[in-house]
């Protein structure tokens, strides 16, 4: 069992900065969990604590039933005794060893016989497509090749827990895509528990079975990627996950125009009191031009088209609703031009309603869920 559990974990650095606050996080056995969040939110610190490279200031970290850190009982297991595979941004290959010897290193420490060691190291190098570099030294490799060697070094020892900190950051776009697929395949094959730090939401959304979003040292939400996208638990997650980001409009008093229209709609439809803001994803915002009318139960508002940005397979339309700029994304030519006036609309179940403190008002979801999804 390689589930990882962090309970009440705090990390305060010697200068006094609190990088991680009271973190409770359960990483399921065999999951591919991405820690996602803006720069400085505490992702790397969290991963380094799981690896044993940093010690928490408070709290407990366990893998399965094994306690690795328990600050109040003075328990701390050093990194080399945690049996985890690590690949960090600075992949720290040994400069005086060839690529092959670097990849064999962990196996040598585990006293694997020479022939088996070589075979496993070469297999790991083939997996990440740098087998032809086996006899070179790290200084003779590109940054991307070094990163792949670091991945091979980790894979060769076949650990049950893999900790990866932006391991694809030095690769070009094509190789990055290939390595994502490769890592997903490796995860499926080995069943290892993977914890992957990234600030790239596409990377998180495409690879992860679970995404944990952090902000300013605090965990915001943990959920499978689709659920995170469709039901963000608070305003921060709603605006952080998705590109272009969700349009979010504050609906606090005093109200006029767009905010008033949204507030009246939300109140009438679900009888909610005191929502703080309402959001709609760009692809959920539809345009009705000319004689087309929005569906009767939809929310709608008049909008002025400001710009239309075609991108081959989609169009991004910038709209002005009263004084608010919003974005709509369509996958068919919207047939509008700057200066046009259109009605934009959204189905009730595509609106996200948040309270004044930013938390999701699930009463809205319950009131507007399409038939058959009410129990979700
Ligand atoms: N050794 C340290 N001493 C003091 N403060 C630190 C130390 N390491 C990190 N920090 C601070 O802790 C906070 C969290 O840093 P961390 O590296 O965990 O963030 P991150 O989310 O991984 O960011 P990035 O995506 O930029 O790597 C930051 O404000 C950072 O400046």
TrEMBL record:
Keyword Transport: yes
Gene3D superfamilies, sorted: 2.40.50.100, Nucleic acid-binding proteins, P-loop containing nucleotide triphosphate hydrolases
NADP recorded as keyword: no
Pfam family, one: ABC_tran
Signal peptide: none
Transmembrane segments: none
Molecular function as annotated in GO: ABC-type transporter activity; ATP binding; ATP hydrolysis activity
UniProt keyword annotations, A-Z: ATP-binding, Nucleotide-binding, Transport
All copies of domain ABC transporter, residue ranges: 4-241
Cellular compartments per GO CC: ATP-binding cassette (ABC) transporter complex, substrate-binding subunit-containing
Protein name: ABC transporter ATP-binding protein
Organism: Actinomadura logoneensis
